[in-house]
Design brief:
By secondary structure, this protein is of the alpha+beta class. It has one domain: Calycin beta-barrel core domain (Lipocalin), CATH 2.40.128.20. Helix content is 19%, strand content 30%. The chain has helices at residues 8-29, 45-48, 165-177; strands at residues 50-57, 66-76, 82-90, 95-104, 112-116, 132-137, 143-147, 154-158, 186-187. A hairpin with a 4-residue loop joins strand 3 (82-90) and strand 4. The radius of gyration is 16 Å and the shape is globular.
């Protein structure tokens, strides 16, 4: 396999994102323990299926390769679980994709799941602890805020490639209600939507 060198501007952006991840980790390490973010009262899985665009996220090591157009597709599999397909366009302008499985850990709300990916350390088993909580949903399932019990991860997902200002205000309020800081979320470039990477609190 040959390696393709990133453009200098892409390298700088990637380095900035890596430093942001380090900052998030340090801040989290100094945080006091608190209750896990609450799930939505009820998740209608049928309505949640389909394609979601990532519009903002707390940077994670596994998505640093993604430069733009990060999205997730959810579909029911023959076992009654949720088949997960995450994909994006890398800094080298190539497609990147991973498939996995989501299983419900919360029969009452359906909004707390364990997402697994074969070959990924600590996430390679179909059954396991909750690592995906749908903590807020927009009208008609137009957007969603997803985190985990530790609140160290966070994703703003939407059906479309952009949200209006009113929806963004609701998203930020939902992030705060989940006990998180909107400044730790960075906007995700999407073709036809946001093009810059900035903290969500100043968007």
């Amino acid at each position: 396999m040959t390696c393709r060198r990133m453009p200098r501007s892409s390298t700088r952006r990637l380095a900035w994102m890596v430093s942001t991840v380090a900052m998030v980790t340090l801040m989290a390490g100094g945080a006091t323990a608190s209750a896990a973010p609450a799930p939505v009262p009820r998740l209608d899985v049928e309505r949640y299926l389909g394609t979601w665009h990532q519009l903002a996220a707390i940077p994670q090591y596994f998505n640093l390769v993604c430069a733009r157009d990060t999205e997730a597709n959810y579909a029911l599999d023959p076992q009654g679980n949720i088949a997960v397909r995450n994909r994006c366009t890398t800094w080298a302008n190539t497609p990147n994709e991973i498939t996995g499985t989501a299983t419900s850990n919360d029969p009452e709300t359906g909004a707390q799941l364990h997402v697994s990916f074969p070959g990924v350390p600590t996430q390679d088993r179909v059954n396991g602890p909750t690592n995906y909580i749908v903590t807020a949903l927009g009208p008609e399932y137009s957007w969603a805020v997803v985190t985990d019990p530790s609140a160290l991860s966070g994703f703003v997902l939407a059906r479309g490639v952009a949200l209006d200002n009113a929806a963004w205000q609701e998203v930020r309020a939902s992030i705060v209600a989940a006990g998180q800081n909107p400044c730790l979320y960075l906007t995700s470039p999407v073709t036809g939507g946001e093009s810059a990477i900035v903290p969500l609190c100043i968007r």
